[in-house]
Design a protein that fits this description.
Rossmann fold, 16 helices, hydrolase, AB_hydrolase_fold
Length: 396
Amino acid sequence: MSDVPPSPDPIGKAADTDTLHTRLPSRRLAERQSAPCTCGIPVPPAPRPDPIAIGWACSGAPLIFAALRLFGPVCGAKSGAGSMEMERARLTSFPREQATARVCMVASFATELLEMRSKEPSLHVLLIPGNPGIAAFYKDFVEALYENLGGQASVTAIGHISHSQKDAEHGRLFSLHEQIDHKVDFIEQELEHSEQPIVLVGHSIGAYIGLEIFKRLQTKIKIFVGLYPFLTLNKNSVKQSAIGYIARSSLLSKGVSSFVSLLGSLNASATRGIVRRLLGPSWSVTAVDAACNHLLRYHTMRNVLFMAMTEFQKLTEEPDWAFIRARQNEIALLFGVDDHWGPLFHLEEVSKRAPRVALSVETEGHTHGYCCTEAGSFWVADYVANLIKTQMLRNN
């Protein structure tokens, strides 16, 4: 990581909350968070889409729309040109150790894992993905995090059930609650007898899942880190309203999933060309491969939308502030500037309710879908690694 200039901030270039309002005045902040996407993707003009929006959902846009669920402004997933060139040069000059993909059975469910195993680990980092919960999207992040921790920690990304390349569960749909149970089962099955402390990292809805796991397994989890956390609904978000509308409709969900499956059934080069054209040049090879090989499956997209429906039902509730306050010294959250899944007014609410939670704001423009670009993956890996080192030293 020598090509990245050192930062005096122990957790990278993220802005702390003391400088938040000097960077973005509250009025401007409200305008930016309520503004519609300007990245060229058609967005319904009102929280409840009209028949034209329904027609749009059944046309060629559902691929991007589904990806929106996890990655926010897909076409806005960007990095500065200099930063991107630097990351490409680093990839070329310093090839990293590669993560290993495998499938294991967790409580009888086939589970895709992406792993980096340390020979002498001092801790185990477990990554909970967002939705889509495809571990392969996080390959660059997992490898960079392992490297940044000096190979002294094992790193595992666990996929959601049936967000997978193969339909091992024969079309069954899994709710948010079932996905939480699945992750608890994994820890109890695979890490029960591990002597290393567990650092839990959750991205987007994975942050909500991670907090629920933390509540159930408080003696096993050393630190919890939420990346661009989706912890409660944003009533100002047109995208969330539109996605929720599609997810609640069995007909629309099946239509979107069928179209996505059709794209996935094309010649591999044709599928890749379409995905690259729709998602834009900023997406990494890793992310495009994950989209082509895992996301463009009927069973995967049906599960993405079904899980989204159950998320929107559950996240009408307030976060468990009592638990967050009780464990606030062991919790860190990273927010983005223009993230409708985890807007900055949610950060302000956390700051009021649990003031000792370590709160940071990423201002580099990597967006909610950080794992879809090399620069975003490397930057967030730097942030998490430095945070882990700081927190572990403080706790010890």
